[in-house]
Amino acid sequence: MSTGKIVVGVTGASGAIYAQRFLRQAAGVYDEILLVLSEQAIQVASTELGVAPNRAEFTTKEWLGEDLPNIRLLDSRDYFTPPASGSFRHDGMVIVPCSMGTAGRIANGISDDLLTRSADVCLKERRPLILVPREMPMNVIMLRNLTTLAEAGATVLPACPAWYHRPQTLEELADTVVARIFQLLGRPLGSAQQWAAE
């Protein structure tokens, strides 16, 4: 049964556009989005997008283009927040983009902040956990960590955009990855194109 709530983690991996596009779409799908940002995520968003969220005076207006009151920023150091506990029910967690350092910590059970703790909770409670890495090439340590995560029940969805619908903009290209995330969450977007669908 859906709760209408989702946890979203954003790390310092390159690919801030994926977080931006996902959160914009998720705000229209979920009643509540619990957001956890790493310090590096803010730096990368500023570098890649020219805009970044302000942790001290958080608003989605500049970063996401509009006020989205159902997105709530959590303190990444505060374990006394809902997603840190298995008793808090939600529809899953998406880490987009997911750095290899974050993936490595989750794969090895190292919960050193709210983001990794929330992911650990998803694994132990058998809730959907989707990681969207944006890294290449990958060394054997990275591959082993991702394999461990997949074996533990996570879904690894590399940020590999699809080209077969001939996207015309970077946003359309990023949205091909975003659409797959929603598909895996059981919330397919009506605008998402399917291959060979009539």
What would your notes on this structure say?
Strands 3-2-1-4-5-6 form a six-stranded parallel sheet, sandwiched between helices. Strand 5, helix 6 and strand 6 form a beta-alpha-beta unit. It is an alpha/beta fold. The mean pLDDT is 94. The protein is built from seven helices and six strands; from the N terminus they run E-H-E-H-H-E-E-H-H-E-H-E-H. Helix 1 crosses helix 7 and helix 4 packs across helix 6. Helices cover 37% and strands 14% of the residues. The longest helix is centred in the last third of the chain and has 15 residues.
Our measurement of the CA-to-CA distance between the termini, rounded to an integer number of angstroms, reads: 30 Å
Which strand order spans the largest sheet, edge to edge or round the barrel?
Answer: 3-2-1-4-5-6
Rg value: 16 Å
Label the structural class.
Answer: alpha/beta
Number of helices: 7
Helix content: 25-40%
Low-pLDDT windows of residues = none
Oligomeric state as shown: single chain
Please give the largest β-sheet.
6 strands, parallel
Q: What is the helix/strand order?
A: EHEHHEEHHEHEH
How much strand? Answer: 5-15%
Task: Count every beta strand, where a strand is a DSSP E run of 2 or more residues.
Answer: 6
